Amino acid sequence: MLRRKPWGRSPDVPDPLDGGVEDRVRAVLSLGGVPYADLPDGVQQVRLRLLERAAKGQDAPRDVSAWAAVVASNLAMDWHRARRRQERLGERLASLRQEDSRDAADSRVLSLAVAQGLDELPGQQRQVVVLRFYADLPVRDIAAELGVPEGTVKSRLHTAVRLLRARLREQEVV
């Protein structure tokens, strides 16, 4: 079996993608659905694959035009796969943004309703709710700060939470 001489980029070896081959690559890419603006990149990708083949010391393809057309066809399929992947990713991100915006809106409504409910609580109940749930103090510390028994703090918390829960249900927030 005779081996063809490896080819490469040198002054005495012409560009393997001469005018006719380049036109064929463009046609295959275009018929494959690659947008006109992306055709030069596709041609460069085919040229790059030919140069990589030469850099690895592989023989030149028997029919460069046919080989380039197959590579261009594969590039067109890859382009479509990448576009579909991007579309699916965009759809998932859009759905996440919609969920986030709905969650954020629900959270804002709930926050406003709780704030209004706190305003309507008697002062001592509001005080223990704020200290317990917003300042994150344990019942023991709240009792010590207010100078009341722990049972009183628990009772006030229980009553305040019950009133807030009823108000939120009445307003159909929860």
Describe this structure in words.
This protein starts with 18 loop residues before the first helix and ends with a helix. It contains 6 helices and no strands. The chain has 174 residues and is mostly helical. It is 74% helix and 0% strand. It has helices at 19-31, 39-55, 64-120, 123-134, 139-146, 150-170.
Short summary of the structure?
By secondary structure, this protein is mainly alpha-helical. Helices cover 74% and strands 0% of the residues.
Overview features:
174 residues, mainly alpha, disordered N terminus
Chain-wise SSE layout:
Elements: H1 19-31, H2 39-55, H3 64-120, H4 123-134, H5 139-146, H6 150-170
Helix pairs in contact: 1-2, 1-3, 2-3, 3-6, 4-6, 5-6
Give the tally of β-strands. Answer: 0
End-to-end separation in angstroms reads 81 Å
Number of helices: 6
Task: Supply the helix-strand structural class.
Answer: mainly alpha
Helix amount, in percent?
over 70%
Percent of residues in beta strands: under 5%
